[in-house]
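Quick note —
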Amino acid sequence: MADPESDGQEKTEEPTQKRLEKAKEDGQVASSKELFVLSTLLAGFLLYFGLSPFFATILLEWSSLLRFSGENGLQDEIYRNMGASFTFIFWKSVIFALPLLVIIVLTQMTMSGSINWSTSALAFKPNRIDPTAGLKRMFSVKALVEMLKAVGKVASLIGAAIFVFTSEVDKLLTSQATHLFGGMSRLGDVFVLLIIVFLLVLAIIAMFDVVYQQYDHNKKLKMTLQELKDESKQTEGSPEVKAKIRRLQMTAGARAKQRREAMDQVPSATAIITNPIHFAVALKYEIGTSGAPTILAMGRGHQAQEIIRLGKDAGVTVFSNELLARALFFAGKIGDEIPPPLYTAVAAVLAFIYQLNKGEQVDAPDVELPDDMLFDSNGKSLS
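Predicted structure written out below.
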């Protein structure tokens, strides 16, 4: 059945690192119950042998709690021994529980690669109490695999037990012919052999289960092509947005390059129109040519100051007119002729500069601009 969130697409792509990390945050990690059974049984077996030299002492201590002299009151002694019994059981249980806890943690670390604590796994999930979802889980492929695995495990352990008892039947049948401790020793040997065989069988089962659980976990986290594309957009950005950003960057870079190259043309300008500080536009016009004046360079702020400095160093006349400088800056382009609506105003300014450069005493022209050529310092039309 297709995942409803995958829009019918088949999950064929391996999970990304982000998907794996998100699964860990939600408490979804590969886990093998068979590996836990094996590790805890092995740990208990080793603890049994490790603590066996102390069994006699432990039995003596335990038996002392079952003896009552009645010298100080039988009832008080019973209560006292009961309290001591609970303390005895508690601490002896801790001796077994702590190593087993460490083994369980190390086993999970072996499966997932790290200790994973997720509060999301503790959150209430309504689908867990949904009867429909419960029936789907009961009759799913996973449930079938778990059932077959359980049947196989029980059959394997029963077969191992039968094998051990049939191979050791002579020893068990002759135990009654020896003394008590000899018989107990033989039974202990058979018991140890049975545990070892159980461990070997469980190790084989756990090995296959670990491989299957890793495969099943990876299969659940697989992604469709659409999910992969969506995640790529979230982490790296939409390809369309990135392409637009690249275009804007290329455009900005080209403009910056054009302005740097234009700065080299400032010394050859005929005039520089300023407002007088914030904007500067360098114009070039050759008398006798048929074309209109050309904009060599323009800038605002620091760049405007640089244009003015370069022009003054080269002896270019600087003419200050706030509205005309804004109009040329916002309506014109570097390398193009000035906008036609500004022909009259620029012609009057260039004529004034031409006469001024010849040493004539003339008054500055009264420049008038069309209404659609009037801008504020932000480029907004004043009309």
